[in-house]
Design a protein that fits this description.
The complex is a heterodimer of chains A (242) and B (576).
Chain A (H helix, E strand, L loop, with lengths): L3 E10 L6 E11 L4 E5 L6 H8 L7 E6 L2 E2 L5 H10 L1 E4 L11 H11 L4 H14 L15 H13 L5 E5 L7 H16 L3 E5 L3 H5 L3 E6 L2 E8 L12 E3 L1
Parallel strand pairs in A: 3-8, 3-9, 6-7, 7-8
Antiparallel strand pairs in A: 1-2, 1-4, 4-5, 9-10, 10-11
Helix pairs in contact in A: 3-4, 3-5, 4-5, 5-6
Chain B lengths: L2 H15 L1 H24 L5 H9 L5 E5 L2 H4 L8 E4 L3 E10 L2 E10 L10 E5 L6 E5 H7 L6 E4 L2 E10 L12 E6 H7 L4 E8 L5 H7 L3 E3 H8 L1 H45 L4 H34 L16 H28 L2 H5 L10 H7 L4 H12 L1 H34 L12 H35 L1 H9 L4 H37 L16 H21 L3 H6 L2
Parallel strand pairs in B: 4-9, 6-8
Antiparallel strand pairs in B: 1-10, 1-11, 2-10, 3-4, 3-7, 3-10, 5-8, 6-9, 7-8
Helix pairs in contact in B: 1-10, 2-9, 2-10, 2-11, 9-11, 9-15, 9-16, 9-18, 10-11, 13-14, 14-18, 15-16, 15-18, 16-17, 16-19, 18-19
Classes of the chains: A alpha/beta (242), B alpha+beta (576).
Amino acid sequence: MTVLRAVRLRKEYGRDAGLVRAVDEVDLEVRPGETVAVVGPSGCGKSTLLHLLGGLERPTGGEVHLDGRRLDRMSETQLSGVRRKSLGFVFQAFHLVDELTARENVELPALLAGVPSRTARRRASALLERVGLADRAGHLPAALSGGQRQRVAVARALIGRPLVVLADEPTGNLDSAATAAVLRLFGSLRAEGQTLVIVTHDSRIAATADRVITMRDGALAGETRLNGGGGGLGALAGLESS
Amino acid sequence: MSMLTLVARLARRDLRHRRAEAFLLLIAIAATTTTLTLGLAVRGVADRPWDRTRAATAGPDAVATGDRAASLTPLAHAPGVTASAGPYPALSAALGVRGIRVDASVQGRDTAPGAVDRPEVTAGSWARRGGAVIERAFAGALRVRPGEKITISGHRFRVAGIAVSAGRVPYPSSTPGLIWVTRADLRRIGAPTSQVMPLRLADPAAAPAFAAAHRGVRSWQDMGAYATAELHLVDSALLTGTWALALLGVACVAVLVGGRLADQTRRVGLLKAVGASPRFVAVVLLAEHVLLALAATAVGLLAGRAAAPLLVRPSSGLLPAGSPHLTVASALVVALVAVAVAGAATVYPAIRGARTSTVRALSGPTRAPRRSPWLIALSARLPVPFLLGVRVAARRPRRVILATASLALTVAMVVAAIALHGDIARKDARLAGPGFVPGADNPVTEQVSQVVLALTVALLALAAVNAVLIAWATSLDTQRFTSLARALGATPRQVTAGLSAAQLLPALGASLLGVPLGLAVYYAARTAGGAAGSILIPYARLPLVVPGTLLVVAALTALPIRVVCRRPVARVLAAD
């Protein structure tokens, strides 16, 4: 059983001699509760793959299935509904709204989904407490550290109780201490059975995954299943090639 | 390469790189320079036709009217009177021509001209036996020419000539229209009912005092005010319109500069990074805008000069005073204003660029959005499009104020135009009477309406450019926010509706504010123009201005919003 599936997924930019195949015939299956890390060199198509899986970009060819529904055939409005109810995004650049406080940022997707403001606020407060930022709920992003901003972004991704959280380089802009905090957070999400697809350069993040998918030139170059599913840094030693 | 060449090259390249923005900036400044040129060219022209007609016709300083000649003749010897003519007998009669019947005031004149008030014949010849002379504006309304047959109270006449005079206010500012016949012919028509005596005073400036001191006497100043009422109204309309257009032009420039600010800051960072001093950067920015200002000055001077004669046409009952002309000083004033507007557009980015560190400028920081906690809390309770709209608007309160002010100004001018139009139309409808030529246009109100229409069209065009610019700037500025909202689940329609709401909220405020403001402008302009009589404004039509404004703003802003909303979410977010 899969919650997220890509079949011969393809994304091309340009044409003729200038044609670039950012994602090239990628097949991928993600099971519920699984954490999948996508790794590879810069420009190999990791982020594009994540955008295609989340319906932020339309594929040139192939299929994307989320919980049995085909995203690649959906209209923009239908895709918005899917993003609202079934997906959560975490971006490398955090993408918090500057003029909103941490709590207001977290409650925003719920308000967009039509959740009453009081309920949205309650859920946002609970999530901020869960990511350890209850005391920072009233702070603007500018008053938060990088790690704190990313934890707010994770809380925001979770407010819609999504089937899958898609994270694009979540520690790419963070120092070691902040990375460790975000790592712990992803670890706890994984432990709770949250499905995660994480694009990353960070071997420590990859080490927390159940599976590591390697991309090169837009195509899948390999897949590695980790023993025991994410034992932190030590788990890297137990990589098992498929 | 000399420094000057380098500055010119950088300025030219940047303008070519941003042609659309440069073109819009040119239009905004040109609209201001055109109206300023018009205002300067037309200023002081209003009184000239009356003065020239007075000079050419030995116009009286005062005109006495009475029942009997005997009651007027002592005035010829009154203190301060240096010359007089007449008294001329006069009566009211029915004029008939080509099936048209209209009342006329007929004066019996000598065949030889008097010392005062010698009407100037502009076509045909002076009154002779069986030949009548018709006042030129009256003749124009009747469309009669010398040689044509007419009847006066059933007596047959031929039109001997057409003349202008400063002894009476021309038709239709004064009714009924004036006809001159010989004294003998007047007696043939009927017994005179009044007498008219033009007077020359030692001190023409004292004519109002003389008129106040003697019953039935009217001063030349009083008659002049009526004779040139349309030109004075045109003057007031142009003055008000020039101010409105200038303010809108400045608003357009402010929006354009604000929209370019992020780009400009980044460009300043680049120039500084390669060794340019803050002063050099400011000079490059100034050069760009001065080039545009000079081009706009040329456009404004040419357009204003071409349009001025069309806007200033005195009553045909007066002699033309020549085309409005522009002095070198006026042209310099126009150029200075254009450069000042362009300079104002340069100062902020130049100072900002000079003050910002190179590294920060290179990263192209836009101004941080404003936070309005109460609006954020309020919007959380609103449907999604309004939630987004309120939050988008709240991010840039200064832009909202600018949008509201410029729209309120436009709405006010439209309301003033509607009020004027309604006022004129109702008054024209009242002008159907025996003293008015049936079916003839009212040249007084017609000219004012044309000027107001031209100004309103210019104002609406500039306001449309402004609305599009504000929507474009808002959409670009909030691109990241709206893309994020879409990534978090807002539908494209919700985002588009939200951005539209951000434009419509100030539009609503502006239209509600603009209606009373427009009425106030109309009352003020009317008072300043010295218009007499009651005001007949079509109040029932004014509430339609509010939905009308909202519809127009929604339609105008739809395109820039759609263009920006179509950009792929992933690409916008990846750009950060």
